[in-house]
C-alpha cells in the first residue's frame, strides 16, 4: 500500500517530519536536525513530498530531513510517479478525461487576484480558465509540446490555431475561494474549421454556471494566412471529435454583429497600445486581452450596476505589439432610454456593440456584442 502523502510549500527555513501518523509539518527555523542549514535559493519554493515513513535524517541534493524536493507542476508529476497513480497526478495538477476520453475536465480554485471589485471572477478570468483547459486538453491528447495547442502534424507544417468566433453565456460569476470544474471537447466545423465547447460547473453542487462555444481555423505561422486543414492533421483530430453542443443550437449567436461607426458609437477610447505581456507564444495578442480593451470603453455606471450575461466576439485580424488601437462602444437597438453616460434610464436588459480597430487606417480587429442584466441588489 502506498504511504500517505503530505504536501506543503517550502519557504525559507528548515522543515522536519515529526513522523506522527503523517501529520503536516511545523516550520522550525532553529531545527536541531543534523543537515545542511542553507538551502539553495532555487529550492526555496518547491513542493515537499513526505511519506508517513519518512525519517528526519541527512540526505543528498534532493533530500533534506527525509523530505524529497520536487519542483512544482509538471516536474512534480514525474517525481511523484513512483508513489501515486498516474490518474491521481493528472487530476491533481491538470485535469482528466471523462466520458470515454471525449471530454476533458479541469478543476480551478478561484484566487484573490482573479476577482474584481464585487469579489467575483471577471470575464477575463473565466476566459483564461477556458483557454487553459483547452490547451491542456490538446496536450493530453498527444499534441505537440512545442506548439501552443497545436498537434504533432501542425507543428511539422508550422501551423497554428486562431479563433474566429467566440460566445460565452454566464449564469452567475464564481466568488473568491469557489472551486469550479471546466469541461471541454471539440468537433469538426465545416470543411476547414473546428468547434470547441465548454461547460463550467460548481465543483460541489454541479450547477452549470457558464457555457461557451467557439470556432477555430488554421493559419500558417510564417505567412499568417488561413489555410485548409491538412488530411494528416484531420486524422489526428477525428478520433477525439465529440458531437455535443454546450449551448443549444437555437441559442448559439450566429447573427452577424452590426458595424459600429463614428456616428453610431457612444464613446471612444484612443491610444490603446499592446504591451509585451499582452502577446502569446504565437506572437499575436492573447484573445483574452481583447476583452479587457473592449470593457474599458463601457460606462462605469454600467459596470457597477449591471453584470454581463453574454459576450460574442468576431475576430477579423490579428494584432501585433506595434499596433495602436482604439475602442468604440455603442448601444444596440435593445437599449431603451437616454444615452447619456451620466444616468441609466434603461430597461434591465442592455445590449452593446463594440469595436476594436487600428487607429491609423481604421482596419477592424474585433467586433463584439455584449448583453447585460441589472444586478440583484439594484433591481
Automatic annotation (TrEMBL):
EC number(s) reported in the record: 3.1.2.-
Coiled coil regions in record: none
Entry GO CC: chloroplast
Keyword line: Chloroplast, Fatty acid biosynthesis, Fatty acid metabolism, Hydrolase, Lipid biosynthesis, Lipid metabolism, Plastid, Transit peptide
Keyword Mitochondrion recorded: no
One GO MF term: acyl carrier activity
Job of this protein: Plays an essential role in chain termination during de novo fatty acid synthesis.
The protein, known as: Acyl-[acyl-carrier-protein] hydrolase
UniProt source species: Glycine max
Amino acid at each position: 500500500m502506498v504511504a500517505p502523502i503530505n504536501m506543503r510549500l517550502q519557504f525559507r527555513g528548515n522543515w522536519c517530519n515529526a513522523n506522527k501518523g503523517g501529520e503536516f509539518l511545523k516550520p522550525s527555523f532553529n531545527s536541531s536536525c543534523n543537515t545542511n542549514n542553507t538551502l539553495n535559493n532555487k529550492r526555496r519554493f518547491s513542493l515537499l513530498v513526505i511519506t508517513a515513513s519518512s525519517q528526519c535524517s541527512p540526505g543528498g541534493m534532493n533530500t533534506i530531513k527525509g523530505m524529497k524536493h520536487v519542483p512544482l507542476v509538471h516536474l512534480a508529476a514525474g517525481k511523484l510517479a513512483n508513489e501515486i497513480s498516474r490518474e491521481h497526478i493528472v487530476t491533481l495538477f491538470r485535469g482528466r478525461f471523462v466520458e470515454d476520453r471525449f471530454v476533458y475536465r479541469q478543476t480551478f480554485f478561484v484566487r484573490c487576484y482573479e476577482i474584481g471589485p464585487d469579489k467575483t471572477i471577471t470575464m477575463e478570468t473565466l476566459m483564461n480558465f477556458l483557454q487553459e483547459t483547452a490547451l491542456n486538453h490538446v496536450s493530453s491528447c498527444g499534441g505537440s509540446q512545442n506548439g501552443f495547442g497545436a498537434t504533432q502534424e501542425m507543428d511539422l507544417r508550422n501551423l497554428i490555431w486562431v479563433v474566429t468566433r467566440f460566445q460565452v453565456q454566464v449564469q452567475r460569476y464564481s466568488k473568491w475561494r469557489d472551486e469550479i470544474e471546466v469541461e471541454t471537447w471539440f468537433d469538426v466545423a465545416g470543411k476547414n474549421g473546428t468547434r470547441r465547447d465548454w461547460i463550467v460547473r460548481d465543483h460541489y453542487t454541479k450547477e452549470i454556471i457558464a457555457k461557451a462555444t467557439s470556432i477555430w481555423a488554421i493559419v500558417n505561422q510564417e505567412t499568417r494566412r488561413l489555410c485548409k486543414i491538412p488530411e494528416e492533421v484531420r486524422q489526428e483530430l477525428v478520433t477525439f471529435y465529440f458531437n455535443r453542443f454546450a449551448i443549444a443550437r437555437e441559442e448559439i449567436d450566429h447573427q452577424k454583429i452590426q458595424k459600429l461607426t463614428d456616428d453610431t458609437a457612444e464613446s471612444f477610447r484612443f491610444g490603446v497600445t499592446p504591451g509585451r505581456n499582452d502577446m502569446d507564444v504565437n506572437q499575436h495578442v492573447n484573445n483574452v486581452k481583447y476583452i479587457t480593451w473592449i470593457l474599458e470603453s463601457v460606462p462605469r455606471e454600467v459596470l457597477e450596476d449591471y453584470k454581463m450575461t453574454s459576450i460574442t466576439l468576431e475576430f477579423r485580424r490579428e494584432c501585433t505589439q506595434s499596433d495602436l488601437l482604439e475602442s468604440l462602444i455603442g448601444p444596440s437597438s435593445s437599449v431603451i432610454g437616454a444615452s447619456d453616460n451620466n444616468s441609466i434610464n434603461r430597461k434591465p436588459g442592455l445590449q452593446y456593440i463594440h469595436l476594436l480597430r487600428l487607429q491609423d487606417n481604421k482596419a477592424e480587429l474585433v467586433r463584439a456584442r455584449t448583453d447585460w442584466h441589472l444586478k440583484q441588489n439594484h433591481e
